[in-house]
Amino acid sequence: MTITRRAILGTALATPALAQWAPARPIRLIAPYPPGGGVDTTSRLIAGPMATLLGQPIVVENRAGAGGSLGAAELARSPADGLHIMVDAMAHTVNPSLIRGLPFDYATAFTPITQLAVLPQILIVPNSLPARTLGELVAHARARPGLPYGSSGNATAAHLAAALLVNRAGVQMEHVPYRGGTAALPDLIAGNMTFLFGTVSSSLQLVRDGRVRALAVSTAARLPGLPDVPTIAEQGFPGYELNEWNGLYAPAGLAAPVLARLHEAALAALRDAAVVARFDALGAVPVGNAQAEFAAYVAAQRESMARLVREARIEAG
To answer: How large a percentage of the chain has pLDDT more than 70?
Structure first.
């Protein structure tokens, strides 16, 4: 997905026709991760504006555990009545290839409603590293097999982005997972890591302050905040794109009028001025695409993540 303001605003304004369904009681919004994280933040940001349009409170419920699959299992066994929804991360498309014995099928248990936001990533290196371009970084790693790279945790977006790059570059490197991206940054700044992918919120200011160097961004187009930093695709890896993202889901079998109304409410939330401002501060890009487009995107991501997990030999941490 190409991340441009024009495209995002265009899709966000393409709201469906007014649907007549209205919830009869408060809506439960499952956030399958702990409070304070990205999914929890997105959930709480959209809950208020969605509730205003729908006329019922939306109660965010954190059901963390097993990489988001515990909360997903809770939604999967909930009735498809519009009163049970979930915000999930890109792990929604990774877990099917990582976690064995799930009590549900990610491919059939849910109704994708819309993609809410994309969170771009920045490839950063320590100032002590001689590489000034992605090509130089690859050459540096190729000449020194086994160099470490960090991530915010096993099978996170940061790990997957790095694994995809390492795999496509054909270099041998050692993955060192941390408990969150913030925990990895001191070691990177100190030169103990060759590179890592950081979120805009955690990395952009470090780049501007000159404490680390940005070599590339993970998006298909350059980021407005770093116009001079090229994409990975521009630097010899055509088609490369791997970002964290959040989507909105309901259980499978959701009736069309209910789906249309929830989709309408989600897009209204993404246009809310306070939501837009908060996303911008976090370095997140609101999306709000059509339901069919999002469903196709989820299916395609599930296939590409399965291929990456297999080829990079990624295992559940």
So the answer is: 94
